[in-house]
Design a protein that fits this description.
CATH class of one domain: Alpha Beta
Largest sheet: 6 strands, antiparallel
Helix content: 40-55%
Shape: globular
Distance between the termini: 22 Å
Strand content: 15-25%
CATH architecture of one domain: 3-Layer(aba) Sandwich
Number of helices: 9
Structural class: alpha/beta
CATH superfamily of one domain: P-loop containing nucleotide triphosphate hydrolases
Length: 374
């Protein structure tokens, strides 16, 4: 799988640009602030409908423009598919696949797969639990796009339930609102169980892949650990039985209701869970050195790449200004590991930041112009 063409209109800093790409390694070279990351961000958006840099879509639209359009020609098994996304702040995005409109933008998910490395990845290891939950959920959707709907349903139910908890608490817990809360408890348990089952399965599959990748990046370091800390009791934690998980979530919601009414927020569910990362038996957060944290962050992305590749349809690898952040040993290790990929897209401020093993096409990026050098 690779992207043979990327075209954007009013995306970030670009009024319009059209870039032809090819399999193998492509390096986008230019000083900071010239638009290199904007290009790979656009490719990542086609694959995930999200940005690795911002949580909202509004910053993706060039200042003064009403909307942005991103188009990518994806080649898979010799067949070309055009993916188009129209991003309009404040409105639902619209999408086309092969020139035809789709009902929902998320219907394009799965057409292009990508794994993106960026300096922001260090926050997966060192940051808040939300970043680690997002890592799992983003990978779930990449593997099986149907989880986009599961994730959306859970977020919608959670928002509605939190609003009801606040109003029920203010109204001194009126009977009608509490009966309505029972209904939302059921919805949350059902949607939450689906998400939990997917996460539990994913962590089990990822665990050996992360350990292998960490050993490769750190040249023998480890071992690593991935453990999912769940809202459900230990006896069902790790289960992929949705009925069992839904029953456990329902029981936990019932037990927590008084506290939730007092605080006006849902205290039980996948949104409160944690992915615990460890190195050598010690928690990575707070104990791992900067280099160890970087190696683990890279290992998480490499494990995602290996998993998606094993599922079929090798993903596009994107390395956004990563090599400048790494010491010589980790830079060399990462370069050797990603070099065989079908398509690797690299951004760097200077040519010297790109390891010699990753020689390929090169574009210079400056002042909104993207110029092929070799």
């Amino acid at each position: 799988m690779y992207v043979s063409r990327l075209a954007v209109t009013d995306f970030r800093s670009y009024p319009e640009v059209d870039v032809a790409l090819e399999p193998g390694v492509t390096a986008l070279i230019g000083p900071n602030g010239q638009g290199k990351t904007n290009l790979v961000e656009a490719i990542g958006y086609l694959a995930t409908l999200g940005s690795h840099r911002v949580a909202q879509d509004a910053p993706l639209v060039r200042q003064g423009a009403p909307r942005a359009i991103v188009r990518g020609l994806v080649v898979r098994d010799g067949r070309e598919t055009l993916v188009e996304i129209e991003i309009t702040p404040g409105k639902a995005n619209r999408a086309r696949l092969g020139g035809s409109p789709v009902t929902k933008a998320r219907d394009v998910l799965g057409t292009l797969r990508s794994v993106l490395f960026a300096p922001e990845d260090l926050a997966i290891v060192k940051g808040d639990p939300a970043g680690r939950r997002d890592y799992l959920d983003d990978l779930l959707v990449a593997r099986s796009p149907r989880y986009a709907a599961v994730r959306s349903d859970y977020d919608r139910v959670l928002k509605q339930r939190n609003a009801l908890l606040k109003s029920a608490g203010h109204a001194r817990r009126s009977g009608s609102e509490l009966r309505t809360l029972d209904v939302w408890d059921s919805h949350l348990a059902t949607a939450g169980a689906a998400l939990l089952a997917g996460r539990h399965d994913l962590v089990d599959v990822l665990r050996p892949l992360v350990d292998k990748a960490y050993a490769a990046v750190s040249r023998g370091g480890g071992p690593t650990g991935l453990d999912y800390q769940s809202s459900v009791p230990p006896e069902v934690a790790g289960s992929v039985d949705r009925d069992l998980l839904a029953a456990a979530l329902s029981a936990e919601l019932a037990a927590s209701r008084d506290k939730e009414l007092d605080r006006g927020v849902t205290l039980v569910g996948p949104h409160r869970d944690e992915l615990l990362l460890s190195i050598g038996g010690m928690p990575a957060k707070g104990y791992a050195s900067h280099g160890e944290s970087w190696s683990l962050a890279l290992a998480l992305r490499l494990a995602a790449y290996d998993l998606l590749r094993a599922d079929g349809g090798e993903p596009v690898l994107i390395l956004d200004d990563v090599f400048a952040e790494l010491d010589a040993s980790r830079r060399e290790s990462l370069a050797e590991l990603v070099a065989p990929a079908e398509q690797v897209l690299i951004t760097a401020a200077v040519v010297g930041d790109v390891p010699e093993v990753l020689v390929g096409a090169r574009y210079d990026v400056a002042a909104g112009e993207v110029t092929r050098v070799r």
